[in-house]
Amino acid sequence: MTGPLDALRRYYDGRKPALMGARHSFAVLCPLVEQDGELHLLFEVRAAGLPQAGEVCFPGGRAEAGESAAVCALRETEEELAIPPVEITLLGEMDFLYRRQSLVHPLVGLVSPDGMDAMRPSADEVAEVFTVPLRFFQTTPPEVYAYDLLPQVGEDFPYDAVGITRSYPWAREHIEVPIWHYEGHVIWGLTARIVRDLISKL
Questions:
Q1: Quick one: average pLDDT of 15-44?
Q2: Residues contacting 150, CB < 8 A, separation 6+
């Protein structure tokens, strides 16, 4: 007969920590391509009919059960752009981001010339693709805007029972929104945060 201690040992043995209470896990590829002797970032514009249609993004999506971030990012890139995984050299996994009770895992990868030749964007998911030189992001600071996420605590919260007053300083979150403008495209939000983090490592 096994007890609680045995159950906990089995569960935690070799387990990789994740986000407590996470609903989903996502992965995106931050694709680098070599053009005209310099590195560029490859971006997509989301197709009409998708959530956030018209927004600039990287290829990616929700991980399937048991799927690693790397496998997810490569699979989604192939589904969206038809670039075979063998034509992408992963350089590493970036720091993850938290978004709507989910983790987003960005990975940096170099797309080969053959991979770019094979690229056929899916009309159902991608309206357009374009590239931007890394040099542009290095020399052009983004516009940065910010907003606060404010807690909205219900009137029925049991303040007395937990031993706090109604003036309790609930934590609020300050969010920065970087924005770049490039040749008619606006790169902002989560995608711009990933770009900004990547550029900070150069």
A1: 89
A2: 172
